[in-house]
């Protein structure tokens, strides 16, 4: 077994470890880190596919607009996550969503062609991409189930729990989600009216599960928050 095979085998044995895209974006040909201002649109629905983005700093929302102009956020992506993975596995040449920076960003990009070239030289990258698809699928399935089975409070709980797990910073009193989360932004993600989301947030606050201050959320009790994600009526 050569070194590449051995490395690949070891990585497969750690398939549940977090994805690390360092090798995918570490080639001398990779463009330098770019600074993107808040509210910048990286791409619109219907734009050509073809590039992958690695978020070094900041947050992006992926959303679609209905014919009535109502915005529904499909994904929220943060540091270390990959944007544009759909371009690797689809024959379609147009995006299905809009990607907007909701904070200032630092990103790196590569083309689909460059990505495939690096996979040929380093097959271990496929495992990292597989994990990205796995995480995206798991989130999509849970969100889909919540739309069918859950009321607004569990849907808000799922969103906050996911943010705490992926982006949270551990503090003495809980897990701080540094991202600015307005009630409207949460409503766009969970597919509910802002007024209903406000009631759900107040309910979680009253129960001592979260604390909201200046549009930032601290999860005080993650276990109790996760109890709401089981879709039972609370």
What are its keywords?
234 residues; alpha+beta; Jelly Rolls; Arc Repressor Mutant, subunit A; 2 domains; four-stranded antiparallel beta sheet; 38% helix
Detail the topology: elements first, then pairings.
Layout: H1 3-12, E1 34-36, E2 41-43, E3 51-57, E4 60-65, E5 71-77, E6 82-83, E7 98-101, E8 105-111, H2 112-121, H3 124-149, H4 152-167, E9 169-171, E10 174-177, H5 183-190, H6 194-206, E11 210-213, E12 216-219, H7 222-227
Antiparallel strand pairs: 1-8, 2-7, 3-6, 3-8, 4-5, 4-7, 9-10, 10-12, 11-12
Description:
- By secondary structure, the chain is an alpha+beta fold.
- It folds into two domains: 3-144, Jelly Rolls (Sandwich), CATH 2.60.120.10; 150-230, Winged helix-like DNA-binding domain superfamily/Winged helix DNA-binding domain (Arc Repressor Mutant, subunit A, Orthogonal Bundle), CATH 1.10.10.
- It has seven helices and twelve strands.
- A four-stranded antiparallel beta sheet has the order 1-8-3-6.
- β11 (210-213) and β12 form a beta hairpin.
- The termini are far apart.
- The model has no long low-confidence stretch (mean pLDDT 86).
CATH structural architecture of the largest domain: Sandwich
Largest sheet: 4 strands, antiparallel
Unreliable spans: none
Q: Tell me the span between the first and last alpha carbons.
A: 55 Å
Number of E strands: 12
Short description:
By secondary structure, the chain is an alpha+beta fold. Helices cover 38% and strands 23% of the residues.
């Amino acid at each position: 077994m050569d070194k590449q095979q051995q490395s690949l085998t070891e990585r497969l044995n750690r398939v549940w470890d977090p994805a690390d895209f360092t090798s995918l974006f570490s080639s001398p040909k990779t463009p330098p880190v770019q600074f993107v201002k808040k509210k910048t649109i990286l791409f619109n629905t219907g734009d050509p596919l073809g590039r992958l983005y690695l978020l070094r700093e900041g947050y992006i929302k992926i959303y679609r607009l209905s014919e009535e102009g109502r915005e529904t956020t499909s994904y929220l992506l943060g540091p270390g996550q990959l944007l544009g993975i759909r371009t690797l596995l689809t024959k379609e040449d147009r995006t299905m969503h809009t990607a907007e920076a909701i904070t200032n960003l630092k990103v790196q990009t590569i083309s689909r062609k460059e990505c495939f070239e690096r996979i040929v030289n380093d097959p271990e990258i496929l495992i990292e991409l597989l994990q990205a698809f796995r995480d995206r699928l798991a989130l999509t399935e849970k969100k889909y189930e919540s739309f069918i089975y859950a009321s607004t409070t569990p849907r808000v709980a799922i969103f906050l729990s996911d943010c705490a797990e992926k982006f949270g910073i551990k503090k003495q009193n809980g897990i701080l989600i540094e991202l600015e989360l307005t009630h409207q932004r949460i409503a766009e993600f969970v597919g509910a009216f802002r007024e209903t989301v406000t009631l759900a947030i107040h309910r979680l606050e009253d129960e001592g599960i979260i604390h909201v201050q200046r549009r930032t959320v601290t999860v005080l009790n993650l276990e109790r928050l996760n109890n709401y994600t089981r879709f039972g009526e609370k």
